[in-house]
Amino acid sequence: MTRWMGNTQLLTEQAAEYRTLAERGDLPELSRAVMRAACYNGSMTGVGSENMELLRALPDQDRLELAGIWARWHARVEGVWSAEEFRRDLEYFRTELLMVASGVARGLDGGLLAAERQEQLSGLRDQYLVWSTHRIWELADAELAAGRTPDPAVLAAFRRTGAAANLPGHRRTQAAANAAEPGMRDLLARLPGPVLNPGEPWADAALKEATAGGESWLRLLEHPAPATADAPSAKWRRTGSALLDAVGPEEARRAVLRWLELVPLDRTSPLVGHPHVHFDVNACLDPFNSHVLRGLAWMLSLLPPRPDTTEALVGLVETSLDHRSGDSPRSPHVAEAGIAALARIGDRAARAELETLSRWGTHQGALRRVDKALASL
């Protein structure tokens, strides 16, 4: 009984059992069969995505009756559960009841177990990443289907998980496994809410100013640097230039410089780390926000060179390479975006700063970027 179900034949056999019971109209036994499978298959599989679609294809009345059975079990779980039948402890069984009932009733009865879903999701408000070994993103999906958007701090935990999955120190962890799940990726693609996660002074200020400035300012923040890109592509630059023109290049430059001044400041809402993350999560930069920050650094390189622009980019590189979070810099990929922006500016002052960085820098990835930038000038 592992967390991931690799036995697709077993899932097929379970689906056949569900169909037989549904055709007979034996919903009480179907409810038990589904929960036995959900517990046996493992917390990252549950009933299985295809089998969940099968259950959601039942008549609405059957779906509501099934979800109602599970909701009643959830309320008096000790009277229903047995280790012999469900092979899991009480808390595991309770969590699976919430997951399965929310999934089957999704889009039909948004009030069913709503308080229980919201309580589970609220536990993510101060989490750096989503470490749950259950499919907690399904609860967020159910809330969205009910017309309720989870708290921005909850959305932030999901977004950080997706953004951090491939960063050093996060790979081969439960959080990275969560980020790779198709259901999680689908949720991340549809999440509403602010364009920046709350809790970092620079991000809070940028979001407040952009919201007050209107749609064109928000679109500027909605043009992040692609996660895997080393430098802005021609297409990215064309879009960025149009966005800068829409708000006014000089107004944009002054705003971005104000926001960059706030990057060194500590978080306003501390986060909880995890034993598998061996650095101070409150000292590193938010992985989701960092892509917006990288985009803003690139934006500055699209504007006419100014001494204060170069100074701000150097400050961003230095802050991002700061080791205050422990053995690792705060955000090497933000530093590399600053280096790429300095290389694009390419004037005498930018070159001098790159040469200085090449002498004092210790992060090997950043130093390679600096060497490449200097070679291109």
Explain the overall architecture.
The chain is mainly alpha-helical and 377 residues long. Helix content is 63%, strand content 0%. The protein is built from 20 helices and no strands. It has helices at 8-24, 27-41, 49-56, 60-75, 83-86, 90-104, 114-122, 137-145, 152-164, 174-180, 182-190, 201-213, 215-221, 234-247, 249-261, 287-301, 307-320, 332-345, 348-360, 364-376. The mean pLDDT is 92.
Compute the separation of the termini in Å.
58 Å
SS class: mainly alpha
Per the principal axes of the C-alpha atoms, what is the gross shape?
elongated
Q: Spans of 5+ residues with little confidence (pLDDT < 50)?
A: none
Question: Radius of gyration, rounded?
Answer: 25 Å
Main sheet, how many strands, which sense, barrel? none
Order of helices and strands: HHHHHHHHHHHHHHHHHHHH
Say how many strands there are: 0
Summed up, the helix count is 20
Helical amount: 55-70%
Strand residue percentage? under 5%
**Overall average pLDDT:** 92
